[in-house]
Amino acid sequence: MPGLDLSQVSSNWKILQGRLNAGKAAEAQSNGVKRKRPEEKKAFTGFKKTKLSGANTDSVGRRRSMGTAESKAAANGDATQDRAKLVREHGIATEDVSAAYGSSGGSTRRHDDEINGGLHPTHKAGKYIALDCEMVGTGPPPHSDNVLARASIVNFHGEQIYDSFVLPPKGVKVEDYRTHVSGIKPSHLREGYAKPFAEVQRDVAELLKDRMLVGHALRNDLQALLLSHSKRDLRDTSRHPKFRIDSKGKPPALRNLAKSELGMTIQTGEHSSIEDARATMMLFKKEKAGFEDENRRQFGQHRRFDKDAAKTQAKTAAEADGEAEDYGDEDEEEDLELLDGEDDGLEDDAEGGAGSKGTAPKAKKKRKKKKRTRRT
Q1: What percent of the chain has pLDDT over 90?
Q2: What CATH architecture applies to the domain 114-299?
């Protein structure tokens, strides 16, 4: 029997193996199993650009440059929405928002602000004024001793009444201007630009007379000015019970109150004492009735002082002592002029504690001052 041809066996074996492999591939495809395609090398075409979105991007996803017309328009649009929110959700009159922030689209600085302008020549103070001060640091590190550097006052409608930088007292060196917070720079406290402390103190004290003082943490501001004010006449937004609910009874930060109660964003960088004073006044106006109710609960109903009766008693006592006085012609002296809205919705403080809804006229209230001339 002839032997097997090994070369022929080898060739047949290869053919058989090819057929078997082809059958397995067909069976795998019929069962839905896909074979992984071999990866092909792709040419590098560069990184894919991500399309940006948001208020600071244009229609094709490119970031706008700061200061362009489009970015300014977007910012003005956001500010307009903030102003509308103050009117719609927080019940603040449109004219009050416009008066406080002008026509600049909700900017926290008014177009008619006069930085370091002292006492404003035309704006009237009225019954309620809001005070805010900026301080700089002195003393040994960490320079925590406060020195008054700026004082600002606005009226009931947010109009600037007073603003001045303040020279540090003689012999006191400013160690920390706290510019990132206070906004105070060395150039602000130079001779000839800032006013002496005594002058600012005198101006502010004159404005405080017979007025209701609004502010946030007023104790710090009055300490810096070395002034005091009747507690009955203070309206401190850091102490109002309703404003302490979110902070769980602790004094809230002004920027947090402005955000939660007014929908405003303030103190994002260097502070402005005019801006902060306006914010406190708007907070007070939003809860004015609540402030006055709380004040009456704490101090009682304020009774009006009967000046005519007091003068009659003084005259009778003087005559009994043999020092009769002659009351000459009466001079009229202007009392505090009430601004529109200052007494709206509040009870008048009537004699005996009975109150009636405020229907007081908005004209000037006047008081009489009699000249006394001693007889010879």
Answers
A1: 44
A2: 2-Layer Sandwich (3.30)
